[in-house]
Predict the structure.
Amino acid sequence: MRRVFFGLEIPAKTKARLLQVRTEVAGAKWQSVEQLHLTSLFLGNIDANSLSAVRAAVRNISLAAFKLDILGLDCFGQPHAPKHLWARIVPDTSVINLHEAIKNRVESLGIETERRAYRPHLTLARFKRHPGSVERLLDEHRATFFGRFQVDEFVLFESRQNTAGSVYNVLERYPLHALKLLEQANAESN
């Protein structure tokens, strides 16, 4: 069994800006630079046969490449007692479309996926017991622009646990179609 998920890689420059948010907050377990990514669909533990089928099923997803902005911070839970601190993805429509396309392919194989609504976000910190307040961080970075980047591919990651936390390894990359993005830009300029 392998623990896997689909996601997007974040450019190094954007990661560097996001890491500058780190500060002392009680109970915060901050993501490392290697852990920063945007999850598209978490599958969890999957056997070798199912993994092969999943890899094949998503290879021919036909979606256009798109651009994303990382803009501002938010949290799950209450700001005075957060569960996760995360950066917002704007616009989220293309990411949601990618999520739905992957989810539909995976579920067509009879593999169950998460039932909760997908909310694209980039996790910066997780909180355990007795979390400290992130109200100041939210106020300070509510409108901070962390970066814009082109999404030309999505990735299948394997997650492995070690003493420092999760380590993510790329199993396969799936290109999106840059040509469609160029066609859309041309159509919009005419």
Remarks:
- The radius of gyration is 17 Å.
